[in-house]
User: Fold these one by one.
Assistant:
Number 1:
Amino acid sequence: MYALIETIHAAGLLTCFALLSTSRIGACIRWLSFQGILFGMVPLIIPDDGLTTRTLLMAGGSLVLKGIAFPWILLKLRARANYNREVQPFVSFVMSILCGILILSLSVWLTLQMKPALIHAPFVLLNSSIFLIFVGLFLMISRRNALMQVIGYLVLENGIFVFGVITVVGTPLLVELGVLLDAFVGVFVMGIAIYHITREFGSMDVDRLTELRG
Amino acid sequence: MPASGSLALPVCALILAPMLLGIVNRTKAVIAGRRGPPLLQPYWDIAKSLRRGAVYGEVTTWLFRLGPVVGLATLAAALLVTPFGGVRAPVSFSGDPIVLVGLLALGRFATVLAALDTGSSFEGMGASREVHFAALAEPALLLALATLARVTGSFALTPVYQAITIGAWADALPTFALVAMTLLVITLVENTRIPVDDPATHLELTMIHEVMVLDHSGPDLGLIQYAAALKVWIVGALLVGLVTPIRSGSVWLDGAAMLVGMVLLAGVIGMIESAMARYRLAQVPQFIVAAATLSAVAFIIRLI
Amino acid sequence: MYAGPSIVAVLVLALAGALSCLVLRRPHHVLMTIVGVSAVELLLALNIWTAALGPKGFVTAADQWFYIDAFSSFHIVVLTLVFVLSSAFASIYFTHEAGAFTVYVARRFGVLWLGAQSAMLLVLVSNNLGIMWVGMEATTLLTAFLISLHPSRLSLEAMWKYLIICSIGIAFAFMGTLLAAASIQSDGGVGADALFWTKLGSAEAHLDPTLMKFAFVFVLVGYGTKAGLAPIHSWLPDAHSQAPAPVSAMFSGFLLNTALYCIMRFVPPVQHALGQDFTSGLLIVFGTVSILVAAGFIVFQRDAKRLLAYHSVEHMGIITLGYALGPLGCFAALFHTLNHSVCKSLAFFAVGRLGQRYGSHEMISIAGALRADRLWGVSLLISLLALIGVAPFSIFMSEYQLLRAAIGAGAWVTLVLFLAASGVVFVSALRHMIDMAFGTASRHDRGGRDGKLAVPIVVAAAGLLVVLGVWMPLPLYDAIASAAAVLAGRP
């Protein structure tokens, strides 16, 4: 079981680095989908009491949403754009990867800080969740393309999802489903926003959104 | 088994290394549907170069002549600390991974100096590219070796590779897999293969390594070709030693497994060269940094 | 009476109102609906308020999933009050945009407006910190399109920034919520009510101090983003300046307070686990920084709505500061919440209408407002004077109480910084205001009649500001005092 967890951890880290270094948005969406499926499996392998309706619902919901629905919406949106590359991010790809390594070190340090208080959570997954959260944040602030920002948001969501699954065993299902629904509506709303932005600006580059200052 | 291996290992390496280049070229030829040169062609090429006389430009100094000699000498020295999978290296001491990387760097330094000594802008450009990529590849190699050292708990190459068994793989699967990927990329980078550089092209604008040695001729060129073969052997041995975790204790069995592995590696390089296109120069650093990232991730995973 | 059912009723009514807007055929009807629904909501809220202030001290419904004490009921009343005022103003404001305010825009507005109201109510009534978070996230998603009700480049830019920044903030808040839940976890004993703030805050909950520390930082940064606390306020001026005036009024008047409310719900549990100093210290830092940053930006503003937006940052800072300064400070903060909400709504109403008449929100354009438009010019004058803390108005009173709380708590550095920033704000905002109110009337003056509701709105809001400035009714005093007592950990 531990080898499986460790493999998920390593593969998850690699998807993040792939997202940090890929310019083609289509490829990024596929990586995101893979990542969603990867971490969607976490509820199935973590709890001690085996498979329950609850874990199945959570895993199923997140697999369907993050593995299929979100990528599908994002691919639809990408099809509307004239070009589908993150041409020149605010932070270059090589620098992004190096920042990724820094973030990874930071996340390991944070995990070491938190771990004593969270005895139930497996260390490596705690580390992946914190890493995902920061990588998501980094993607959101370092990319020009609106779709890449949404991708960053979803990476962050993945991190929080994993964190929730491994640390909090007792939250009511209602809350968790609410969270998933929120993520779904969030992507939907961002999708509509991007739709309007592409129509108005003829581009998904958010660095055109610079008229409001001060 | 003696504490350190005999000199038979480096001698075998000196004899067999050019064969690897032959296998790479043969694989490429077969995939392209040609018969290709004979497997021993690299030996003939080296011998032919060694027989010829050398021509030196008027502006070159002793640095230019020193380059190929130092390049070969450092690699020959590096062979002494390179274990061949389960087969021990003749020399082993704590910290020898750093010596290995340092020797590779020294050889490169000599080659770069020789290239700059010609005063040609082409060769200077090649030297600059070579150093640029090496600056990225070296930390990657060091990180990869450091990760292996971390997993196996010793910091000398021979014991590290002794400890890479099937059991160790089962324990540290993600880590070893990541390091192996890094080492594969480093094999391609260090030996200037596609997708980093194309050893077959002679277009100055796209070359990296070849453009540095354009001015060398005769025996110098022969030494350089031989050194290139040795480098494939050394870096390849690091990779193959990791991915063929057969440690029976018998030198013959381990050595045979490694040889099969080396042949396969040469075949894989040939297939990669046939299947991929060369990256644009701007993409190469990204490729190498990505490789370094893999071993950094592996290293950090092991810190936990 | 019927307080429990009233809780369900406020939620259901807002939702039903939102849905019914989908089928209305005329913009006029949509506006009527939101005014009507908001008015009924206010009555229900008052009913809940009286019940929550009764001997029991709380109202609950749905098996404790809804739980309202003095603190939340006070916020509910302020919320519904702001909504009644803003809805009534919306009916005036959008009548003057008849061309752009088609039936589709009207339906969208109605649905999102009442939807946002129900989401905010959900935040205020729910006992479960998870559901509270869901409500908060829902407000972000629902209000995003209110900003770009009329899609233009600027409003889309503001909307995108709002969406992205607040989504990040909300994600952090969720992380904090999870950490809070995990902190009980480590002592075992988990039930479906693990995330109830009534449970977390009670003495028997054993919370892990390390995790609660992390949790509070995440919550403060996360909800603080939504509350517009500096330095994470960057979405706020953009969103406030680009949204239609009623929406800006609702943002400033209540959306920000909802986020602060969420932060304050975490304070009692954290204080249980870590003592008073940790939360107070953080709140003081965030509050003071917000006041200082806002003061800096107010000096250089050209756009009237951005000016008001930075005033919101400043006042959110003041309220946060108040929460950190002990019981007296909490009282001042709550009183200030009410005053600021009413006053800021009035200010946005005035700027919104004047902006329509002048065709611009640039302060240079809005000159001589007093002469050009008597009603809204006077409103602008009153609300801006109140905002910067001029004496007869109630904001002066709450800021004065805050000063006393600061002196009582011995927070001298904070006190000095607060006074300095207030001085800067006072002078610069006064300058802006004099130009707008008394300058020579600009020629871009378009006529337009305000409906019957205009005068009552202004009289109600301005009257409240004046009356509360000179006389505090005893029931209100009791209500605020018991709300402040909740924060001090005494139910």
Number 2:
Amino acid sequence: MTLAAPVSRSVVEATELPRIIRIRPNFHVAAFGLMKLLPARFMLDRAEERGEVGPGTTVLETSSGTFGLGLAMVCRLRGYPLTIVGDPAIDEPLRRRLEHLGARVEICPEPSPVGGYQRARLDRLEELRTEYPNHWVPGQYSNPDNPRSYALVAEQLAETIGVPDCLVGAVGSGGSTSGTSSFLRMLVPELTLIGVDTQRSAIFGQPDGPRVLRGLGNSLVPPNVDHAGYDQVHWIGAAEAFAATRDLYARHCLFMGPTSGASFKVADWFSRRNPDATVVALLPDEGYRYQDTVYSDDWLRAQGLAHAGAAEPDEVVAPTGPGGSWTWLNWGRRSLADAS
Amino acid sequence: MTEDLAVAVPAPATVTVTDARAGSFRVDAHHGEILQGVFATGGRLRRGLVTLPCPLYSTRATFLPTEKTGTTVRPAWRSKARRAADLTLARLGHPVPGGLLDITSDIPLCRGFGSSTADVTSAIGAVLAATGRRLPPAEVGALAVEAETASDSLMYGGRAVVFAHREGEPIEDLGELMPLAVLGFGTSPGGRGVDTLELTPARYTSWEIEAFRPLRGLLRRAVRDGDAGLLGRVATASTLLNQRHLPVPGLDDVLAAARAAGSVGVQVAHSGDVAGLLFDARDPETPARLEFAATRLAALDVTETWQFETER
């Protein structure tokens, strides 16, 4: 480690990789400032190389979360106009941040009867494609450059930790967990991959429905989720994730968002059950966006979520349970069809 | 890269030409690659490799300056060595007009042991020794590539260097390689060999190009910690990534034999037909494991095997 680190050419280059922090001798977290910067930058690099993006190209994407923010930063630095199609999950501060970066933000007010807001956003995106003949859509849910971007994280983990036995991460697009594990498994084929999802997310076979815990889960099944790569799947509730997020801050001074709390809680559980295993949890973003929600006791009480939730998960034999507010399935690297 | 050639490779113990003006230089063979692929450097991707040294064989070049212009090589067919000597003399500004270059080598040809790089590198070293000059390894690499199109990192001795073999330049010097014991074997029946320069470079997929990043990351850690187990994982992963491009026949069986024998990994000469099972040379279990591994390979109808350690 040298103090004279090289000067970064942009904030993206400076912050796209996580900090690796040891929680216990066999338990590390990879804490990102804004994880989605990495796939956003990488997808744009590859699209530029292939000539799909150039001067005059408008970037279009559907996102209600941090991918839009990462993309807005990368597009701003390179001068590409950007339109983000979101839903009411884009809170006012996030909307302002996107607009300050020059992005145009469109909110879909109503969910589609089938596929929810995700479907409504994709439908609006199709309309925009015809409005902008010279456009590029990163497509974080299906673009294979999303998972490929995580080779850099695998390189960093290999160099700093060596060969981990278990990788834990929240699943939304599938990019970080499927991508990082596919690369690590070149070096450690026996790596245990744990995907963290939430109730009423369709990714691992539950019926789609309203979800309080956002930033992970999905109303549709993204092609970038390689189901056959996961050894375990956990469905964790909002109360558990929020309490774990607060705990992560209170005990370890790691100020992170609720998907990080969810990932941390599952990784902590696995690590205690397997004390000899080297465990790494991916923590996708920081806590600033959630100061008025997860970090507010009043808000938690108003939601009826001011409690720790389940301390242990119930093991289930099918995605739909039965079980409590935190369940886990020995997925066993199966396809979605085989597991449902 | 501050070391010069005379430091990177030990000077020879004996000189074959008994003339005070003669210079001699010995270069060990290598055993193919620990890692071969594409690597990000300076914002772009370059083909590169990390060589596994093999002191089982070596090449000695002796250069005797003469008043005649140009170099004469013995045996005459080692023309790349002659070219390397001429290029070195030109690079040094012709301190002598020419010379007589003797090459003595027991490195098998066309198998991936680096015979032609050893010819070229030893010739450059012999000219430097005879003229009392020095060049940094990167310049030796550039001369070697000029003489033979591609090169290996033999001029770095026992260091693990990610080396751009088509430009002759180091991408990253990872440090001193830990001692390894190797059970080598021929991967084609009869050991017929491969003309290395005839091989088309592998066209890696987008995923494969990214997959080399974690291999390089783990190799950094392996070399830093002297951890042969981690290095073995890198070698096996590199072997698997390259299997689509230059397949090793029966690789699955070889990998199973390696696991059963407690080998840390499998490496391959990607421009040849030799491969090796790697072991930690400092592990007291290694001699027994080597013996068991040899019986496993024999059961796979592998007809020729050999053993060596990377440190003499």
